[in-house]
Amino acid sequence: MDKDLQQRLELARTLARDAGELALSFFRSVGDLQIKQKGTQDLVSNADIEVELFIRKRLAEAFPDDGIVGEEHASVASRSGYTWVIDPIDGTANFVRAIPAWCVVLACVHEDQTKVGVICDPCHDEMYAAALGQGAFLNDARMHVATSATLDDGSTGVGMNNRTPHFMVTRIIELLIARGGIFYRNASGALMLAYVAAGRLIGYSEPHMNAWDCLAGQLLVAEAGGRVEKQSADGMLEHGGRVVVGTPGVFDELVMISNEAYDSN
Prior knowledge:
Fructose-1,6-Bisphosphatase, Chain A, domain 1, D-Maltodextrin-Binding Protein, domain 2, 2 domains, about 260 residues, 14 strands, alpha+beta
């Protein structure tokens, strides 16, 4: 691994852990949170804002020429070619209701590829981390996706959001069930992608995700031996997009039913 990549992976792991501890301190006093509604089922708390500011400060100190894109604050342009992508708390709806299904997400993009991806679940002391070409790890153990070859051999994560029509979600659930599959949702897309990488879920599909929710998880899945729809990382930073990942055995079928479910006609 080249030096630049190694340094950024090490920082991402340390920083995600530290940011997770900060978020956990807010989570332990969830009744004191200040919560605002950004949209339908789209919440933000003072914890999201403070954790992102904490991450941004540490990134700026370590790599002052790197760009930063985050969910809660304005973007910083890159002068180095590297851009960090932050979701301080993915699963805020869970977080503010004291449900322990949320995570801190960091990715680093360079030359239109996600080079580093880290997802920290502090409630369960789990750190998912990957660098391009270096494999994926859960804490210190190498991860590999499940061996499932069909959609009826495991659970598939299903994402939803307020940017796409609801019928897309009901369609894909119907199509999964028709094939003997089981759908799973925990309201944290990043965490569900990490679960695919760890072999807990066999796939994940969502009609649209923002870059901060998915880039890290997509890298984790790919480095754990899974398949991921090919996308431009820079394009995802600009517009977001559809996300479909899965084990090698189920990926093609999951793409097929995603195409059918998300067709607007």
